[in-house]
Amino acid sequence: MSWGFLRDLLSGVNKYSTAIGRIWVAVVFIFRLLVYIVAAENIWKYEHDEFECSIRQPGCENVCFDHFFPVSHISLWALQLIMVSTPSLLVVFHVAYRENREKHHNQKLYKSPRHIDGGLLCTYLISLILKIGFEIGFLALFYKLYNGFKVPRLVKCDITPCPNTVDCYISKPTEKMIFLYFLGATSCLCIVLNLSELSYLIFKYSIKRYLKRYTKKHQ
Q1: Where is the Connexin N-terminal domain positioned along the sequence (predicted)?
Q2: DSSP letter string over the chain?
Q3: Which pLDDT score is estimated for 6?
Q4: pLDDT > 70: percent of the chain
Q5: Would you say residue 115 has pLDDT above 80?
Q6: Three state DSSP letters for 193-207
Q7: Disulfide check for 158: which of 26, 93, 165, 215 has CB 3.0–4.6 Å away?
C-alpha cells in the first residue's frame, strides 16, 4: 500500500487545524507513519516464517500462530493509522462544501470558509471525538489481543492438531515489545493532544458566547 494518500490528507488537514491540531499532525506523521514505514513494517514482515515450534506436526505451527497472533500487529497498526486519520476528512469535506457554496452563490457567506466556527466547529469537534474513540478502542484491542503489550519468548500450545503441549518460540520478542510500548505511548500522546484541543475549542467557544451575551446585555 502507498501511504502517500494518508500523508497528503494529513498535510491538507494541517491548513484547517489549530496549533494543537498541527502538533497532532506532526506526531502522527513523524512518530507513527514514518516509524511504521521505516522500521515497524520490517520487524513484523516475516513474523509467521520466524515463528517456530518444537514439533513438525502438519498444521500445528499454523494453528498455534493463529491462536497467539489472531490479528497481525502490523495490519492492526496500519488499520489504526487509517482509522484515526480519516475523521479529518470530515473537516476537509466541510471546508470544500463552504467554498463550493460561496462559489455557487457568487458572494461571501462566511468570514472565511476555513474559519472554525458555526457548523465547521461542530464538525471539527465530532472529528476530535471520533479520533479519541478510535485511539482508545485500538489501545484496548491491542491490550486484549496481546496480553497487555507483552511479547513472550516462549509460548506453550496444546491446540489440535498438536499431539501434546508444544513449545513455540517468537522471534525478536524484545524488539517487538519495545515497538508495542512505543505504539501505546504515541497513542496516549495523541489522545492527550485531542482532548486538549477539544477542551480548548469548547472553552474558546464558551468564552466567546459569554462575552457576546455580556456585551448585548450591557448595550
Answers
A1: 42-75
A2: --THHHHHHHHHHTTT--HHHHHHHHIIIIIIIIHIIIIIHHHSTTTTTT-EES---TTHHHHHHHHH-SS-HHHHHHHHHHHHHTTHHHHHHHHHHHHHHHHHHTS--SS-TTS--HHHHHHHHHHHHHHHHHHHHHHHHHHHHTTTT---SEEEE--TTSSS-EEEE-SSHHHHHHHHHHHHHHHHHHHHHHHHHHHHHHHHHHHHHHHHHHHHHH-
A3: 64
A4: 88
A5: no
A6: HHHHHHHHHHHHHHH
A7: 165
At residue 7, does pLDDT exceed 70?
A: no
CA distance 50 to 44: 10
- Report the phi/psi class of residue 156: left, alpha or beta, with left for phi > 0 and alpha for psi in -120 to 50: beta
* Domains defined along the chain, listed by start: 19-218 (1.20.1440.80)
pLDDT at 137: 93
Strand partners for 155? 168
| Assigned C-alpha cell, 190 | 495523541
How does pLDDT run across 117-151, given as a tens digit for each residue? 778 888 889 999 999 999 999 999 888 887 777 88
pLDDT at 195: 95
159: phi > 0 → left, psi -120 to 50 → alpha, else beta; which? beta
Q: How far apart are the first and last CA of the chain?
A: 60
Chain center to CA of 54: 37
Contact 68, 48 (CB under 8 A): no
